[in-house]
Sequence to fold (199 residues):
Amino acid sequence: MPQASARPGVLRRKLLRTALCAALLAAIAGCGHGREYTVPDSLCGTRTDPDLLGALLPRGAGVHVSHPVSREEGREKGSVCSVSVKEDEDASSYSPAVRVQWDIVPGDRSAEDLMKVKDGRARAYGNPRESGLGKLSLLADHGLVVVASCPGEGNGVSLVLDVEVSTDTPEDVDKRRTTIERFGRQQLKSVLREQGCTG
Fold:
């Protein structure tokens, strides 16, 4: 009879061990679908915060950063580059995730006019609203556009920053908008400094 009373306890322990093993295996399997790449610390030749950029990138097996495409026409100059992510090792290509573009525009075009030009771009990013980066900025579900003064390059010169996030819209879109704004603020500060806009 004592053996019969001990059997339920043994059975409970076996079930508990089985459940724990199943949970551990599920956790290990889940790790295989995480981020298996290093987030870059610079974009378009400008230093960036990997934590802020990483928050905008999807999970995947690999990352590719395009070489910056720079242009210089008269007094105008700019650069554009992008980050793409490969979903898994078997994927044949990388999918666009984040694109960053900045342009320095001479003072013969007002900052307000430049913002009007960029308004259509911001609308394409979905639900644009003024961001915390100033009255000449628009934050959207898939990106950010901001026009800032660049006095170090001359009177009336502006810097235009355009950030596009190509990944699917998450359930918590407000959280992502906040992340886009934080990333945009950091990029704007870096570009303004590195392009001599701050004097």
